[in-house]
Records
---
Amino acid sequence: PAPAPEPELPPLDVQGLWFGTTGDGGLFKLEVLGQTEGSFEGLVQVSAPDGSMQDLAVGGTVDGKGAISFRGGGAKFSGKVSGSHASGSFTLADGAKGTWSGDK
């Protein structure tokens, strides 16, 4: 018989404030204001590679294995959550790319 499928893990709880940096030393902040199962909404503050600050309202998803993605204002972020740490990469609306990390 075929092995039973693995049970789906419940989505991680990412509500709260994640504070950290971008790969070039700028600011990264994600505040998750509300989460329903695997979907969430919040606010991102991120330093663009040119040094400007961007404030973005975002919506995103997170799964039980920690894969996270969120987007808003033409910017896209993706990454991985592990415990109280998260990190990943982003592309801003103007095409500028970078990496981010944060802790809750």
Note: The chain has one domain: 16-103.
---
Amino acid sequence: LRHLLMSASPALAAANARLLCLRAASKVPGNQPPAAASLAAKPPWEAAGTGLIEKVLAQPDHLGWGSEAATVAIRQAQANHRQRLAASQPLSLPQLPHPPIPSSSPSADHPTNTNTHIPVIPDLAFGMLKQGLASQGRLWLLMRHLDESGRGWHLQGALRHQMTKTSYRFCGRRQLANLLKEGEGIFWRFGSGRIWLLSTGKVAANLGLDNATYRPVAMPVKAFLGKVGQVRAHFYATYHSARAVGDRPGMPVARETIAAITGVDPHSQRSYEKLLNLDVRQNIAIGEEIIEGEAGQALAQERAWRHGNALFTLTDYKGKQGAKGRRYHAWQLPNSYGAIHAAESRGGRRRLNRQLIDLQKKGAGNDRVGRRYFANGKQLERSRGLMHVDRYCPTGRFGAGETWSVWSEGIK
């Protein structure tokens, strides 16, 4: 080595001296055989933690290990290595922004309509009950509810999916096909793969209505998804919900009158009231005190003729009507009924009547009996009936029922 150093040029000697200084600074021993691990090690530009190489590459191009040629060689080797790594990587497309996820449509498994109630005009419900079209009417109301955009039509396939595969399911595919066939021309019509919904006025005309009398009420959506008996019960209850005043029940009404208006016979009325747990309040009227003599007998005959089997004798043991122990003529009045549906705006009824304005109207009504039940005595005194009938106003409560005072024309 000494002989080589003596025969070497001054430039080479300076380079070797520089190399020895670098070895001493980095604590790298010289003239030692490489270990097996070091033989398999990566080149300096591939290995991690090579502080010396990093320092050399971090310096400007004209600096390095004291040799500009060595610095250039190392930089070129590192550039070739990067090119080989890039060529070995699989071809990939540039990352594009993700498109927005489309919102779920009414035909999805979870429809977007968050409204939990459907407005129902009681007169339409009565027409469906009278015509035996409660199931088809239920489907028509649900289709209108699902038509949030107001297009007036549904695709047949989308409707089939909604009514049989989503939370709005209430029947199978075969039953749905039967309902669509039975309701064609009354509630909807088919065309171009779509089901076109008829307007409320056209449906009312098809059901035989010529005027809407009662204000709309809000029926819960879940009431439409049960058995058809439950749907009929709710359609029947819309009559009482429309007549109620806030939390107070409506005025007394006879079951025969209810049957004539709704098309539901008295036996079914009681069944529906029990099914829906409807508030049914009994009412009795308290008439004149029972007296002896011919005048008392004439009064008893008049009351018996007017009220028949509903007449009975009431003994006032507690003295609520006067002295204790007195007896009065009393008779049972029709029941009063509470509401189970919230009242809606009257605008729906007015719009329906405007659509029905060209249809035949009812008669003038001169043969009808005047109003019979009033909220208080002031309204009763101002009433002018068309026939000589008894008129009533409430006076108090008894248990679950209510007592009414009576004003009779022709009886003094």
Note: DSSP finds 17 helices and eleven strands in the chain.
---
Amino acid sequence: MFEETKFRDKMLKTYYYDMYLHYGYKMIRDIISRSPY
């Protein structure tokens, strides 16, 4: 039971981390492409 909860927590963290990386990267790329430099 405890291990299952820990596992699910780890999965959620990985999922959110992937989402953060994906969208963060996209946002940064958009900002760079919009900047005048």
Note: The chain has a mean pLDDT of 86.
